Amino acid sequence: MEIILLESLHKIGKAGEIVTVKDGYANNFLIPNKKAIVANKHNKKTLDSRIVEINKKNDEKVAAAFKKQESMENISLEIAMECNEEGKLYGSVNPKLVSDELTKIGHEIPAEMISIEDIKSTGEFNITINIYEEIASKLKILINKKEDFNIFKKSNSLNHFCKLDYYPKKY
Asked: In this structure, is the dihedral angle defined by the CA atoms of residues 147, 148, 149 and 151, taken in order, positive or negative?
């Protein structure tokens, strides 16, 4: 289905362009969310008059994206994860986890904006956040070992871990 984009979308096109996408994507997401309109004869004729309005909205979004990029300039995240003795993680660091950590410090970033390599060990890594169009921000994340996970390995005695005085006395 041919559509006219009302705003720039990552991997699809820039605002004002006529692009072809799958019917379901256009009908179920782009058109209801007012990110695009159907590219019929009438809309193609009025595109020239609407292009000024589209460019104005796009410029506002670009300005907001630059402001967000500046606010995220010097952020570094520290994430404590469960891992083994060699530093290999039980699981991996994914965009959803990074998005949740950014939300905790006051930056609302959807997981779809985060480009991340496959992280399965402790250490320092770089991630990219695609804010809008070509505007991106780079962050450093430090993956540390979660200390309280390996309590059984530190102590051979179960008595050290459990609070035995919690249980009622037998009479």
From this structure: positive
Given a contact cutoff of 8 angstroms between Cβ atoms, the answer to whether 145 and 83 are in contact is yes
Contact 145, 81 (CB under 8 A): yes
pTM, two decimal places: 0.69
DSSP class per residue in 128-164? EEEEETTEEEEEEEEEEE-GGGGHHHH-S-HHHHS-G
CA angle 60–64–70, rounded 5-degree value? 145
pLDDT digits over 114-163, tens only?
988 888 899 999 999 998 888 889 999 999 988 754 444 444 444 444 44
Amino acid at position 36, single letter: A
Q: Which residues pair with 35 in a beta bridge?
A: none
CA distance 51 to 17: 10
Q: What is the pLDDT of residues 62-101, one digit of tens each?
A: 999 999 989 888 888 898 889 888 889 988 899 999 999 9
Nearest residue to 125 (alpha-carbon basis) of 76, 73, 74 = 76
DSSP state of 1: -
Beta-bridged to residue 13, according to DSSP, are: 9
